[in-house]
Amino acid sequence: MNVPGNSKKSSKPPSKAKTQAAAAASTKPSTKASTKIPSSASKAPAAKSAPAKAAGFSLEPIFAAIRKRLPASRQAEAMAFAASFYKRLEDDEYPHHSADAWAAVACDMLEFARVRKPRTPNVRVFNASLKANGWESPHTVLQIVNDDMPFLVDSVSMALAEAGIGVHVLGHPLLRMTRDKSGKLAGVGEGAPESLMLLEIDRQPAEQMPVIEARVRTVLGEVRSIVQDWSAMRDRMLALSGELATRRMPVDDAGRREAQEFLRWAADDHFTFFGYREYRIERQGGEPILQAAEGGLGLLRDTRSSVPRNVKSLAAHYMPQSGSVDTLILTKTNARSSVHRPGNMDYIGVLEFDAKGNPVAEQRFIGLYTSSAYNRRPWEIPLVRQRHEHVMRQSGLAAESHSGKALRHILETLPREELFQSNEEELSRTSLGILGLQERVRSKLFLRRDRYGRFFSALVYIPRERFNTDVRLRIEALLKEALHGEFVDTTVQVGESPLAQLHLVVRPATGTQVDVDTAELESRLAHLLRNWQDDLRETLIARHGETSGLQLSGGYARALPAGYIETVSPEIAANDVEHLAALAGPDDLRLSLHTARRGRDGEGRLRLNLYRQRQDIPLSDVLPLMENMGLRVISEHPFRIDAGATAAYIQEFEVEPAAGVFDVDSCHAAFEDAFARVWHGDAENDGFNRLVLGAGLEWRQVALLRGYCKYLLQTGVPYSQAYVEETLNRYPLLARLLVEQFEARFDPATGSESKAQIKQGQERLAQQLQALAAGDEATVKSLQPLLDARGQSRDRQVEAARKALLKFMDRVSSLDEDRILRGFMGVIEATLRTSYYQVDGNGKPAHTISFKLDSAQVPDLPKPRPYREIFVYGSRVEGVHLRFGPVARGGLRWSDRREDFRTEVLGLVKAQMVKNTVIVPVGAKGGFFVKQPPTGGDRDAVLAEGIACYKMFIQGLLDITDNIVGNKIVPPVDVVRHDNDDPYLVVAADKGTATFSDIANGLAIAHGFWMGDAFASGGSVGYDHKGMGITAKGAWESVKRHFRALN
């Protein structure tokens, strides 16, 4: 409730004369305020002119409720009281209570104020109820009626805050009231001003209410004693200023004058007096004792509270005797203020010396410097102006220079306590140190121990953009811990300067000896002030050097959103920034599999991060891929990073293994590569990809097993691909051994490796096998011969892999699964050549993997069995070429039968051989299937994809076919052959490929294949079979005719 009258605005109590005049004229209201502190009495409304409106609503409903509540004889008084009490009730406050409740509050407060003893406050703490008070509140109510004086609202609020009690409603109207000699209320609207305070505070138990009331009465009593003695304390300071002219003082005349001027300056509305007392040094038992004299004022009236202390407790005891500051003690008290504003009180001590220059007495003032003192410029304050001139002179800077003006501004903006309490050298060191911060903005601590051993003063400068409440609290905690502080008072100054200024006064616990290592404390502070961005920048610089590290930290790093910063560590963020910076464009994808905590106290969990530009990946696209990679998705945390013109996205997925556990450090690179290959279409998205994590395979090794599976399915094995995937994932060790068997047979590096390469390969294989053995020592021991064979011949390696496979096949529980695994083993052994190890000019693997098989060795292959066949597997195309003799030709068909194109091709070649058996005893046929035709594409798009797949198929056939250069057979590069020379490969057109012969011939020529443009019959350099009616029989008749001509 915002009600009229604010008795906290002034910091200067009225003069004694004015107070007496106001008391004498209590029946005649005065509208003239004191010259020293304006009373709020002039703001109180008169009852005769009580307004019918408050803010934007009418008070009439409240008046009507009062009329119903009270007899006619009391209504006028109550309504006059309510009119003043609710004069400034706001529109949004009025609906909080009904008109009846507002009327009840006013009547209740009026009854509480009806009787008050002179110069004694009324204080009541209670829980309001309808029955007892006519109104109710969910909070505890504190009511106060007191003579009007300054500091009431501030001081009561401070007392509640120090007790940890929150204030929910605070109303403090000022009303004129007339009372008789006994304190009974005689009228409202005229008379002396009184302060009424209505507070609703945190709900309190009954036993706590007397404690709160006692504390409030104590504070009100302290305020009264301060106000009553204010003039006397001020007069005493002015008198002391005059006395200094004739006192013995160990200073020169200039110092004496400065001390006098400072006292006059403080008394001139620059110091709020709270107390005064004189102390004399007396001898007790041979020891000098500091004894309080009678005549204290304000808070120091009562000498009973002063215990004689050793003279060492005198603040000046440890003070070096030099300059005018020795005459005046400017520091802070050990006691904290309970009036006006929180913190330790300011202390001005005036020393009295004997003939030898030893202090023999002290006149002590306590209080608070006023706001006007804090607004005065240093060169306008006595004593301080001398230090200001000293600093400017010692700096050697011209007053009108840029640096000189900057130093002058620094002194002007320093906390006034630093100017009052620092000596010349301390002030010079601090101000020049701050000047150095202007050239290179950074964090800095300036720590000063009070010369009298009472407290530490810390000035902390922080780059403004880094300062916030959390930083302030952490700095307070650090200094409180390092300096054994009992209290910490902080003042913050944030302006146009790039540096925020914190002034912290830390008072160590009584009796504590504090040894401060300032350098260590500053180092701890610097570490505390390092923010998340600092750690990220330093991490990037450590990884990439200063130039590249700063570039990275200035790009995406600066644009990371707040939600990201709160949950991601700088180390992980550095990885993210590196991936974002490496993105080549909107079609590029980067990813990272790692373990990280989320938030400061989160548990480390497995996470997969995806990075893209312009748009993120829909969950419907990425979740199936992740599940096929062996991960179960728990949650997603997406982040958008707006850095420059192009937005980037980080999608963080919390994941867990779908089956078993794996070592992230050893698997993440293979996983990330496989995921990217699947995303870009280089590998297929199916359950085989679980072998990357489950069996420790790389994506190319997975593609190898997938290619063999595709071939087995084409041969008619009675199992689905899903069942084959499930089998290999159930037996990851056997999957790894199948790959080992293949690599032993076909790795072209075998036999040419150095000892170091062999050892490295053995260690890598041992690590994989141990992980797959899952700690089973018997399994590890059984695999040792396989590891030993790594350094031996190819045949030894092949035999060791075969034995290991057969040994662990015994662990397979299902006949179907056994048949599947043995099928893989058999087809690998039937493979004669492969293009698996070939790479292009850029060192990248080809789009397809070709397998040349001895069909007679393939288990369970339906008849007729070709002489040789080549199966070409790729993510976009699959194809087969069946050849029933060393020299045989036949057409290549664009098949539309995904599941059984080999059966289709086999049927074609059987028909060819039956039809042409007399003419050409053996034949050949091939076919390929386009696996990813354009969705909804037109005929041209489909044809383009068909041609692309045809090229990959032809290239796959040529990759593992011998060439003839001159008269020599030249084997293909990086192909281990388990058969004899076999350079014959001729193709022709068939369904769907009638116009593709030129394409095939072009590939053969580019490949340097010996057949050249005769590789594919027909085309622009051959004959159009259909157009010229060329058939096999016609060709045979032409041959016979040719032979007859030779005879």
What features would you describe in this structure?
The chain has 1047 residues and is an alpha+beta fold. Among the domains are: 59-204, no CATH class; 222-370, Beta-Lactamase, CATH 3.30.450; 377-440; 441-517, Phosphorylase Kinase, domain 1 (2-Layer Sandwich); 530-577; 830-1033, no CATH class. 42% of the residues lie in helices and 21% in strands. It is built from 35 helices and 32 strands. Strands 9, 10, 11, 12, 13, 14 and 15 form a 7-stranded antiparallel sheet that branches. A 7-stranded mixed sheet has the order 24-25-26-27-29-28-32, sandwiched between helices. β20 (590-596) and β21 form a beta hairpin. α3 crosses α4 (99-112), α6 crosses α7 (209-243) and α23 (699-715) crosses α30. It is elongated, with a radius of gyration of 48 Å. The model is unreliable at 2-51 and 315-325 (pLDDT under 50).
